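One record is kept unedited as follows:
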Amino acid sequence: MSTRRPLASAAVILAMGAVLLIPSSSATASASTSASSSFGRSHRACNLTTGPIASCDALVVDNVNTGAPMATQAFTYGYTPAQLRAAYGRFGNGHMTIAIVDAYAHPNAAADLAVYRSQFRLGDAVLREYNQSGGPISTVAANVGWGQEQMLDLEMASAICPQCELIYVGANSASIADLGAAVTTARALGAQVISNSYGSREFPGELRADAWSRAASGAAVTASAGDAGYGVQFPAAAAGVIAVGGTSLTLDAKGSRASESVWSGTGSGCSAYVPKPSWQTDTGCTNRTVADVAAVADPRTGVAVYDSYGSTGGANWYVFGGTSVAAPLIAAMFARGAQFSAGEAVPARLYAHAAGLFDVLSGSNGRCFTAHTTALAYLCTAQPGYDGPTGNGTPNGTVDPF
């Protein structure tokens, strides 16, 4: 068992009621409906922050008996690439370059990604790594928590688009300024799709700091909506970004999508500072509303991730949740779609083609209204059509909205 431990007891946020049991002998096995007595809670991979400093949105599932991460030496638990593609569809045949932007670096990233892709027969990866200025990644400090985030992002992008070239850009720190510089570099390096699985609380200067919207002109830039329930974080609130909420995803006995509901931990709401983009038409929020789209994020229906950095004893297979799962999944789905036009506001596609998404109709992530403001219920509760926690819905690959 890994000796990696939760970073802070205050970050333990979710009880695990049921989990996936997937035999390690098959990369395409269906999820069992059985529960595991070993699964307990989940903890944040990165500490919570204050001010314009981001925390990553990755949640690591823990063993209920030991309190340590539920790590195994061989792949055992969590949704596989085949299951994720079966749930959401296979989409187009495109293969744009995907950039993953996070803070810091992971010294074993290339080797760990190769293990994940070999386990699930995804072929060899094309991975380039840089610092926030476009120089060598070797100049960036390593960090265990953000390293977990990095592997989650790279592996989820690989799960949906194994043929896509991957770029990793590691910011010098988790500050919004450094992460914004990394996003600008990712776009300059040729990335057509950029995934960001982190966020900070909104702050008064976020409009001036919005490198994400500037990079999103004619590109798809995703950002996770957050893991603390109802409330908005940046850069998911950025006007040009595709804000990605989270769901609980259940598969049937054949491994296909059976049902989906709002994950109680996903972020959503009305931005305090960002004006409403032209492609949003909901009336309960005069500013930017989060989210635009959603995908699986609940740790109780989490995904398999391979990560060796900071582990001991070879127990390197983990189960992860959080909207950090959803953001790279959606990014990779865009990467498989059609090319973008110069200057295009890519999030608008999710509104123009909302019928191509699964509408999520149940669940809530908090209390956002009173008896006198029931018109605002959609900001935190699923409803037909658009709602805050899941946006326009989740991917339906049979009708490509990307």
